[in-house]
C-alpha cells in the first residue's frame, strides 16, 4: 500500500511514467533491453539530463535560466573554432570554456539579484546576446571540427567491458554530475536555495545571503550547459543549431520531475528522471512509427497531462492530510498574562545580557 | 494605484524619449533624418504586430500567467485566414470570424488548463504550442492560401505617415485600457493576479478573469496573424516562430513596467515598451548594423531598460497612509498612542537597569524557560 502510494504520488509519478515508457519501447523493440542498447540510450540522454540538473538548481531558487540553449550553442562554436585540429589545445580550450561558463552564470546571477531584473528577462537578454555575439564573431557559419581528443569526451568510452560491452564517458560524467548535484542538495547551499525559492524575504531575514546563493545557482546552471556542450561537440558535431531549444526541454524535464516552478520544492533525482522520460518519449514516438509531424503534438499532450496529474495528486494529498498541527490549535488558549510577559521580556533580557557582558 | 501606474508609465516614457534622442543623433550621423515621414511610418509599422501580441500578453501577465503559444496561434491564424479567403474578397468577413473563433477556442483551452487543471501557465502554453506545432506540421507543408487585395490594403495603407494597422492596434489598446480600468472583470484580473488566495477569500471567483485574459490574448495573437497575412498576401506556418514573438512580447510587457508576477501594470506601459523595441530596431536598420549584432544590442537594451526602473517602480509599494493610501483614519489613533508606548518601554528599561544585576539573567532565564512550559 505504501509503495503504491509512493509511486502514485507526484514525486513517484515520473518514475512510474518512465517505467511505462521503457516497457512500451521494449515491447515494440525487444533489442532495446540489451545492456549495450540501454547504455546508448543513457548516452543520448546525458546532455539533456545534465542541463536539467543545472536548471533544477535555478528553478528551486524560484528563477528561470533561458540562456542555457544559447550558451550550449556558443560553447560548441567556441570549441569548434578554437580547438581546430590541434590536440594540444584541448585542455586550454576546455579551461577557457569553463571560465566562460562561470562568467555567464555570474552575469546572469548578478543581473537577477543585484540589478533586480526578473530572471526571465535577464536570461532572455543573455540568450539573445550570447547567440548574436557568437554568430557575429563567426560570421554566421560554424567552421571546423575540433580534434579527435576533444570529441572523444562525447563519443568515446571504455570498450570491451564484460556486461555492457561499451561504457560511454558521457554516462560516467552524467553519473558523476548527478552525484555532485545530490551532494550539493544536502549541503547548506542546497538547503538555502530551497529556502530562498520558498520565501526569499524570510530567508533573507534568517541571515541567508540570497544574492550570492542565487548567483551560485546560475553558475551551476551555466557550468551544466558548458558540460553538455562538451558532450554534444563529440556527439552531434559543430553546428549553429546544436543546443537550440534546450532551455525549454530542460525546464520541461524538471517540471515533469515534480519540481515546482516558482521554487521551494523539488528533488534532483526526479528532475533527472524527467529528462529520461522526455527522451524515452521521443524514442517511443520514433519506434511506434508516429509521423514526425505529429510528434510535437503528442509531446505537448503528454507534458500537460503529466504536470496536471502531479498537481492534482499533490492537492489531493494535501486535502487528505490533517487540517492543522496540534501546536497551532493551542496557541490562542494560552493565558493572557503569559503572552504579555513573553512580549515584554525580550527587551530587558537583552539589556541585561549586554550589561553582564560589559562587566 | 493611480499614482504608481503613472510612475511606471512615466519611467517608460522617459526611457522611450531617451532612446528616441539617442536614435535621432545616431541616425543624423549617417546623414538622414530620423523624423522623416517615411522613417516614422517604418517605426509605427514595426510596432503594430508586436503591439497586438503584447497587448494580449499584458492581460495574461497581469493575471500572473504567461502565454508562450502566441507564435503558433499567429501562424495558424494567418493560414486559416488565407486559405479561407482563397483570393476572394467576398470571403473576408467569414474568414476573419472563423480565424478569431478558432483563436478564442485555443485561448479557452489555455485558460481552462491553467485554471481548472492548475498547470503552470508556462508549461500549459508551452504544451499547447507544441500541439499547435503538430497541427501546423500535419496540415500545411508551406505557405498556403491567397489574400485578396481588399484585405492586403489594411496592411499596406495609412493616413499620412500613420499606417492603418497601427491605428487599429492603438484603438484596441484603448479598448483594453477601458476593460482593465473601468470594468469589473478588469479589476478582478488585477486582484487575481496580485494574490489569488486573498481574492478568493474576498469572495471573487478567481477562474473567470484569467480565462477571459487567456481568450483575449489568443484573439489578439490571431489579429496579429491576420495582419501578417494581409502583409504577406499568403498564410505561412512559420511566420510567428520566425519573429520570436512569444519571448519578445513578454519582454515588451515587462519593459512596460508590468510585474511578471502579476497584479500590477498597464497597457500604455506595454505600448511604450513596444515603441522602444521598434525605435531600437529601426535605428539599427538605418545604420545597417550586422543582423547578429542586432540581437546582442536587443538583449542588452532589454536587460538595461528593465534594470533602470525595476529598482524604483516595482519594489516600491503603494502608500498605505496619507492621501491615496489604503488606510485612512487609523493614523490619528496611532500617533496619539505613540507617546504612551515610548513612556511604557522607557519605564520597563529603567526597571531593568535598577534591578540588581544578578537578578536580570535569572529573570530572563525563567522567562525563557517558562515559555515552553506554558505552551
Q: Would you kindly provide a brief summary of this structure?
A:
The complex is a heterodimer of chains A (359) and B (375). By secondary structure, chain A is mainly α. Chain A has helices at residues 2-8, 10-28, 35-60, 68-83, 90-113, 119-138, 148-155, 169-186, 188-198, 200-205, 210-236, 246-256, 268-287, 292-320, 326-330, 336-344, 346-358, and strands at 157-161, 165-168.
Helix content of chain B: over 70%
Largest sheet of chain A: 2 strands, antiparallel
Give me the oligomer status: heterodimer
Strand order of the largest sheet of chain A: 1-2
What CATH architecture of the largest domain in chain B do you see?
Answer: Orthogonal Bundle
Taking pLDDT < 50 over at least 5 consecutive residues as the criterion, the unreliable ranges of chain B are 1-6, 313-328, 357-375
Cα distance, first to last residue of chain B? 43 Å
Label the overall shape of chain A.
globular
Biggest sheet character of chain B: 2 strands, antiparallel
CATH class of chain A: Mainly Alpha
**Order of adjacent strands in the largest pleated sheet of chain B:** 1-2
Number of helices of chain B: 16
Task: Give the CA-based shape of chain B.
Answer: globular
Number of domains of chain A: 1
In DSSP terms, counting alpha (H) and pi (I) runs of 4 or more, how many helices of chain A? 17
Mean of pLDDT of chain A = 81
Number of strands of chain B: 2
Radius of gyration of chain A: 24 Å
Describe this structure in words.
The complex is a heterodimer of chains A (about 350) and B (about 375). Chain A has about 350 residues and is mainly α. Chain A has 17 helices and two strands. Chain A has a two-stranded antiparallel ribbon with strand order 1-2. In chain B, helix 2 packs across helix 12, helix 3 (about 70-85) packs antiparallel against helix 4 and helix 3 crosses helix 10 (about 205-230). With about 375 residues, chain B is mostly helical. Chain B has two domains: about 1-315, ABC transporter involved in vitamin B12 uptake, BtuC (Orthogonal Bundle); about 335-370, no CATH class. Residues about 1-5, about 315-330 and about 355-375 of chain B have low confidence and may be disordered. Classes of the chains: A mainly alpha (about 350), B mainly alpha (about 375).
Amino acid at each position: 500500500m505504501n509503495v503504491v502510494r509512493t509511486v502514485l504520488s507526484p514525486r513517484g509519478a515520473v518514475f512510474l511514467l518512465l517505467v511505462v515508457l521503457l516497457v512500451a519501447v521494449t515491447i515494440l523493440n525487444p533489442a532495446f533491453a540489451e545492456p549495450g542498447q540501454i547504455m546508448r540510450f543513457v548516452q543520448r540522454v546525458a546532455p539533456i539530463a545534465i542541463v536539467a540538473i543545472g536548471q533544477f538548481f535555478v528553478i528551486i531558487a524560484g528563477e528561470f535560466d533561458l540562456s542555457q540553449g544559447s550558451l550550449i550553442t556558443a560553447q560548441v562554436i567556441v570549441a569548434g573554432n578554437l580547438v581546430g585540429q590541434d590536440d594540444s589545445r584541448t585542455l586550454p580550450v576546455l579551461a577557457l570554456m569553463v571560465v566562460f561558463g562561470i562568467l555567464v552564470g555570474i552575469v546572469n546571477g548578478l543581473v537577477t539579484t543585484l540589478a533586480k531584473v526578473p530572471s526571465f528577462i535577464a536570461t532572455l537578454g543573455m540568450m539573445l546576446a550570447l547567440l548574436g555575439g557568437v554568430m557575429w564573431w563567426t560570421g554566421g557559419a560554424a567552421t571546423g571540427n575540433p580534434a579527435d581528443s576533444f570529441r572523444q569526451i562525447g563519443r568515446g568510452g571504455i570498450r570491451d567491458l564484460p556486461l555492457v560491452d561499451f561504457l560511454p564517458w558521457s554516462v560516467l560524467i552524467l553519473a558523476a554530475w548527478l552525484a555532485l548535484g545530490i551532494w550539493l542538495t544536502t549541503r547548506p547551499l542546497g538547503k538555502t536555495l530551497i529556502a530562498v525559492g520558498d520565501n526569499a524575504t524570510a530567508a533573507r531575514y534568517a541571515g541567508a545571503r540570497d544574492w550570492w546563493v542565487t548567483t551560485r545557482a546560475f553558475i551551476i546552471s551555466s557550468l551544466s550547459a558548458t558540460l553538455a556542450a562538451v558532450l554534444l561537440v563529440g556527439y552531434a558535431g559543430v553546428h549553429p543549431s546544436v543546443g537550440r531549444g534546450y532551455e525549454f526541454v530542460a525546464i520541461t524535464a524538471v517540471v515533469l520531475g515534480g519540481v515546482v516552478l516558482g521554487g521551494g520544492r523539488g528533488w534532483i533525482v526526479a528532475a533527472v528522471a524527467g529528462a529520461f522520460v522526455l527522451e524515452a518519449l521521443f524514442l517511443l514516438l520514433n519506434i511506434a512509427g508516429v509521423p514526425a509531424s505529429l510528434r510535437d503534438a503528442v509531446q505537448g499532450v503528454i507534458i500537460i497531462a503529466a504536470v496536471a496529474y502531479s498537481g492534482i495528486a499533490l492537492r489531493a494529498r494535501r486535502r487528505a492530510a490533517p487540517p492543522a498541527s496540534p501546536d497551532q490549535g493551542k496557541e490562542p488558549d494560552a493565558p493572557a498574562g503569559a503572552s504579555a510577559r513573553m512580549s515584554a521580556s525580550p527587551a530587558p533580557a537583552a539589556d541585561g545580557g549586554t550589561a553582564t557582558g560589559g562587566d | 494605484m493611480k499614482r504608481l501606474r503613472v510612475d511606471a508609465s512615466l519611467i517608460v516614457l522617459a526611457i522611450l524619449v531617451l532612446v528616441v534622442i539617442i536614435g535621432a543623433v545616431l541616425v543624423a550621423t549617417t546623414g538622414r533624418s530620423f523624423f522623416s515621414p517615411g522613417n516614422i511610418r517604418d517605426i509605427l509599422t514595426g510596432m503594430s504586430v508586436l503591439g497586438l501580441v503584447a497587448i494580449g500578453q499584458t492581460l495574461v501577465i497581469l493575471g500572473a500567467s504567461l502565454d508562450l503559444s502566441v507564435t503558433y496561434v499567429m501562424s495558424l491564424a494567418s493560414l486559416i485566414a488565407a486559405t479561407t479567403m482563397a483570393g476572394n474578397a467576398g470571403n473576408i468577413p467569414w474568414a476573419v470570424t472563423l480565424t478569431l473563433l478558432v483563436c478564442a477556442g485555443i485561448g479557452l483551452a489555455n485558460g481552462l488548463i491553467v485554471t481548472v487543471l492548475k498547470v503552470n501557465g508556462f508549461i500549459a502554453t508551452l504544451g499547447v504550442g507544441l500541439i499547435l506545432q503538430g497541427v501546423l506540421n500535419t496540415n500545411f507543408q508551406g505557405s498556403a492560401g491567397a489574400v485578396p487585395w481588399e484585405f492586403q490594403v489594411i496592411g499596406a495603407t495609412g493616413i499620412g505617415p500613420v499606417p492603418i494597422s497601427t491605428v487599429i492596434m492603438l484603438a484596441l489598446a484603448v479598448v483594453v485600457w477601458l476593460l482593465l480600468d473601468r470594468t469589473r472583470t478588469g479589476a478582478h484580473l488585477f486582484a487575481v493576479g496580485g494574490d489569488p488566495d486573498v481574492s478568493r477569500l474576498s469572495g471573487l471567483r478567481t477562474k473567470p478573469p484569467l480565462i477571459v485574459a487567456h481568450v483575449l490574448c489568443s484573439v489578439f495573437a490571431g489579429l496579429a496573424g491576420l495582419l501578417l497575412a494581409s502583409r504577406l498576401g499568403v498564410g505561412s506556418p512559420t511566420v510567428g516562430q520566425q519573429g520570436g514573438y512569444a519571448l519578445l512580447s513578454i519582454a515588451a510587457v515587462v519593459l512596460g513596467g508590468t510585474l511578471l508576477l502579476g497584479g500590477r501594470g498597464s497597457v500604455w506601459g506595454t505600448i511604450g515598451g513596444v515603441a522602444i523595441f521598434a525605435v531600437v530596431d529601426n535605428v539599427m536598420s538605418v545604420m545597417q548594423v550586422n543582423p547578429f549584432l542586432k540581437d546582442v544590442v536587443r538583449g542588452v537594451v532589454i536587460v538595461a531598460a528593465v534594470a533602470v526602473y525595476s529598482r524604483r517602480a516595482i519594489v516600491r509599494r503603494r502608500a498605505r497612509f496619507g492621501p491615496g493610501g489604503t488606510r485612512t483614519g487609523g493614523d490619528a489613533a496611532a500617533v496619539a498612542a505613540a507617546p504612551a508606548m515610548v513612556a511604557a518601554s522607557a519605564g520597563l528599561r529603567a526597571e531593568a537597569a535598577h534591578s540588581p544585576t544578578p537578578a536580570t539573567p535569572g529573570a530572563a532565564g525563567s522567562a525563557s524557560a517558562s515559555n515552553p512550559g506554558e505552551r
